[in-house]
Amino acid sequence: MSVAPYDQILTLYRTLLVFGTVAVLILSVGLVEFVYFEPPGQTTGATAHILGVFEYDPKAGTTQGPDRTTFARTDEFAAVVDWSQLPPDIVVDARWFNSFGSVVGLVGPGTPAQLGAQSTVPVIVPPGLHHSLPGHYSFVVERLKDSRPVEVLGRRIVLVER
User: Fold this and answer.
1) Cα(156)–Cα(81) distance, rounded to whole angstroms?
2) Are 118 and 141 in contact (CB under 8 A)?
3) How many Å apart are CA 121 and CA 141, to the nearest integer?
4) What is the pTM of this model?
5) DSSP letter at 84?
6) What whole-number distance in Å separates Cα of residue 142 and Cα of residue 2?
7) CA neighbor of 105 nearest in space, from 58, 151, 38
8) How many angstroms separate the CA atoms of 58 and 27, rounded?
């Protein structure tokens, strides 16, 4: 009985085939995920008009001062959106995300007419905390279809300093 000699080339070839197959699977899953969350043909060309991000007075429910991109941890702030600039037949919402990707402020979903009175979208300090966490905060206005975001209509990023 003879034993076949160990072939290093065959082992390397099989290893490359396995890695190639795994790479194709990862690429395929990524492509499917991309098409699911960014369906082709979903763009409307609409753009949300974000008037700015301002210091916010929660007691009065109003904004004050100039448009800013940087805030202290002790500052409360909110974005102001002009909903009238959007087509009336779409469903939208506006969300604040902190550095961890958690939603820390939300208005919507609804049509621009339904959200017209809610043009100020404040950041809500997480329960148990007295101030906002430091880091970058993203404000995003999205168009929804079947309760799923399909198009970003506007975006602002602000920094909360330590």
Assistant:
1) 11
2) no
3) 11
4) 0.77
5) G
6) 69
7) 58
8) 46
Contact 124, 107 (CB under 8 A): no
pLDDT 10s per residue in the chain (162 long)? Answer: 677 777 889 999 999 999 999 999 999 999 999 888 777 877 788 899 999 999 999 899 999 999 999 999 999 999 999 999 999 999 999 999 999 999 999 998 999 999 989 999 999 987 788 888 899 999 999 999 888 888 899 999 999 998
Which DSSP state fits 59?
T
The DSSP element (H or E) to which 13 belongs, if any, is: helix 8-37
Sign of the dihedral defined by the CA atoms of residues 69, 133, 130, 120, in that order:
positive
The three-state secondary structure class of 11 is helix
Q: Which tokens sit at 24?
A: 């194709």
d(CA 141, CA 44): 14
Q: Give the C-alpha separation, 17 to 111, whole Å.
A: 51
- Which one-letter amino acid corresponds to residue 17? L
